[in-house]
């Protein structure tokens, strides 16, 4: 499947999620399966990411549409007056949390390529009374902002979905100001995945098959021009988590058969959520 087809699959899937949340129906989490039977936060990757206090501050639909694998705004050390950009902002949860942290003298942008998600996010911002936010339509491979225009980039389980990660990372560096911070949560591989998993479109749109090896993530960040690169594991997924991921993704055999059991063992411990930090050099 080529880049255009992958992008269409991702857009279609997350458009369905937005429509389900807007209609008040349960939807599938980002990083579990594509069956649509699990509510966000109930699959192995999306559950238990935000505190009760954070959720209580936000519109219910922003929480319901949360499809990430971490809580980057809690770790990004945002400061009053900063300009923040959330790559792949979805229903707006991390934009709204960022907007609270940077305050009225700062600004939080959200970028998403899915019109339904943008509509949902703008409605959530209106419900939250957030005045220092703006949602942009576009792709993370071609960010519609000027050079050196933001202080911090956050993202939550989105870069793994890109079919052109080198370009996405170069774009992130371009829009950061000198010294600007890259602070994202993402799914990262500790070792290569078996071919039936790596080639599954359902598991690509579910945040697994498109994930980078930790060494490759570091290499691509450095090649884009980032420095001070850190990758901090926040959760390594166990055999039980792997079973849920494969079954939910409709991949690789029926649960319980020999092929599935072998793949579960191969995936056990290979996938982790991580917090990735880096910085644009202060000069250049």
Question: Can you walk through the features of this model?
Answer:
- The chain has 284 residues and is of the alpha/beta class.
- It has a single domain (3-279), classed as Rossmann fold.
- Helices cover 38% and strands 20% of the residues.
- The chain is built from twelve helices and eight strands.
- The protein has helices at 3-22, 52-56, 60-64, 72-75, 93-102, 115-128, 165-175, 195-198, 201-205, 214-224, 239-248, 258-267; strands at residues 83-87, 107-112, 133-137, 150-156, 176-189, 212-213, 227-236, 271-279.
- Strands 1, 2, 3, 4, 5, 6, 7 and 8 form an eight-stranded mixed beta sheet that branches.
- Helix 5 (93-102) links the parallel strand 1 (83-87) and strand 2.
Task: Walk me through the topology.
Elements lengths: L2 H20 L29 H5 L3 H5 L7 H4 L7 E5 L5 H10 L4 E6 L2 H14 L4 E5 L12 E7 L8 H11 E14 L5 H4 L2 H5 L6 E2 H11 L2 E10 L2 H10 L9 H10 L3 E9 L5
Helix pairs in contact: 1-6, 7-10, 11-12
